[in-house]
Amino acid sequence: MHTQVTVTLPSELYEHAKRWATLTRRDLSETLADALALVLNPMSPPVLEKPIATLSERQILALCQAQLKPSQGRRLTELLSKQREGTLSEKGRRELLALMQTYNQLWIRQSEALAEAVRRGLRQPLES
Fold first, then answer.
1. Is-contact 99 38, C-beta < 8 A?
2. Residue 42 has pLDDT above 60, yes or no
3. 119 and 95 fall within a common domain
4. Which of 12, 35, 107, 111 is buried most, with the most CB atoms less than 10 Å from its CB?
5. 111 and 58, same structural domain?
6. Are residues 61 and 112 in the same domain?
7. Domain count of the chain?
8. CA distances from 54 to 50, 84, 116, 123 (A)
9. Is 62 found in the same domain as 11?
10. What's the Cα-to-Cα distance from 94 to each of 1, 73, 105, 112, rounded to whole Å?
């Protein structure tokens, strides 16, 4: 079941979404629906992790280097290629969304760890 919704977007966000839809060869409404699903309805429940500030220095530094498992990285690359080619199945789309959610959660956690490492003097701030 689908519900139609009218949303007013900032022009810059609209243009970004339009470019993403073009790059992925998908309809703009599908692209926006997937983006919202990724943010608002994770494919798997969030993992309850210890707050970054409570981690040891060793744990912080390890988290700064965290990456997807190699098998997940390969699968993400494969699914993104299929999406670009327009050959991604519905099952593949769901798997892609789940992997993107995992990647995003890892990226956020890693960013928090980097900030904590700088705060504790374990690393120098990244150059801009």
1. no
2. no
3. yes
4. 35
5. yes
6. yes
7. 2
8. 7, 41, 10, 17
9. no
10. 17, 16, 17, 27
Q: CA 77: distance to chain centroid?
A: 13
Query: CA dist 108 to 63, 67, 87, 105, 114, Å?
Result: 11, 12, 30, 5, 10
Give ∠ CA 26-78-70 in degrees, rounded to 5. 135
Same domain (yes/no): 35, 51? no
58/36 same-domain check: no
Distance CA 11, CA 89 (A): 31
Query: Which two tokens mark 11?
Result: 């022009």
Helix (H, G, I), strand (E, B) or coil at 66: coil
Nearest to 68 by CA among 100, 96, 35: 100
Q: Which pLDDT value is given to residue 101?
A: 84
Whole-number mean pLDDT of the chain? 87
Span 11-26, mean pLDDT? 86
